[in-house]
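Tutorial handout. Part one gives the primary structure; part two gives the three-dimensional structure as tokens.
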Amino acid sequence: MSDVIAPHVGRLPPIDGRWSPRSVSRHELERGLLSGMVAGWASHPLDNVRGNAQMLLDRDPDKEFGMTGLQEGMTLDRILELVETAAGASIDREARSGPVDIRPGPIVDACRAAGARLADACRRGESVVLATGHPVGLAHLYHELARWLRDRGALVLEQADGEGWRERRLDHEWRIAHWDGVAMLTDGTEPRHTHWPDAMRRILEHGHPDLVLADHGFAGAAIEAGVETISIADVNDPALLVAQSQGRTEHVLVFDDHVEPDAYWPVFLALTTFVH
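Part two.
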């Protein structure tokens, strides 16, 4: 484990028995999603959701996640429709502030569909790249998925590990680092939250995997490159939902991506175990 990743991992909460794959009821998963605030009122309010959707329409690169053509046929109302459909709750078009609701049912449904694809990757021994721009909140989810995939026969790749480049606008070097198969962007000191596609572009220069599991620009760059991708998106990150509506990607899991790392065990179980 690198000198950058090890201290970061040491600050994360422990992974407890709730993460153990097992047969689980849908009721338990939905209750867990709500109690952990993965579902329910999102941490990003309506003004942020609307603002980011408009910034995407205005071609802000921070909101495009490395993808082109996202504005074609899109309006603010259409993007909000995509968000409310994925979240399972309506958005008041007259409101400009207030909470945005995410229902647990659509999360479980989306995870079960994506989980079937992950199971196929294991059965076929496919190559998979996992990468996150959320090195705190989503760290446990990606780590446990990497372990689960590897244990069941998938080839989890660590391409471009340690590769660095200097960003002209900043006075430090970016570097790709991995935690047990999960790629993250670091600044040489700690893993960083990022929307940018640069790291995934560099990863893909070393070869295209059969499947990518990622978020933010890591996911967007893979989709743009034509790699099959399972994405995680919050309600204020509509680019991946727009790409899905355009038929460019199939699986987008929408839930709050900004809660405690140990809250995502229901997502892990919905992706990897039998739900009844």
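Part three, for discussion. The chain has one domain: 5-272. Strands lie at 40-41, 101-102, 127-131, 155-156, 164-166, 173-179, 182-186, 211-215, 229-233, 251-254.
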